[in-house]
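Molecular record:
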Amino acid sequence: MSSALASSPRRVHVVPLPESRPPVVPPDEVFARKESEFVQDSLALDFLARDELFAHQLSARAELPDPAPLVAALAQAFVEVMAGLRPPPQVSRWTSPEVYAALCRRAAVATRRGPASRRPAVVRRVRVQEPADGVVEACAVVIQQDRVRALALRLTGLDRRWIVTELSVG
């Protein structure tokens, strides 16, 4: 048996190994959009095109409460925030980010100045106009210490509540 193996010459066949690395993908194909945005076995939700569903929704006047008492309370609160007597986060729910930032700046200046007088401001008169559906323009006369000040506010109905989108203090 060993003589039979020694007498027949065997040929060695060299077989190339298959490529084990994945092919190189060009960069334009990597970032190219696929024909389907959804992956098999995943929850089929497209969050990119649905931002308008989660944004603030404008409200009609019929869906909103009476603005006059709110304007009086907000005018009182805004003057107290600007005097440093009330923390600004207490009014953040009723203000737009721009108005809240302005109130925070005024509150920071008031706290640096120090306590001048702890006598609270008094709202004397409030006037409310509705130039459009879901929009209120109001003014308030406020007596603070020995000064008479005027506040002008613009409220917009968003998500069934009033939000102060503009504030001017005179």
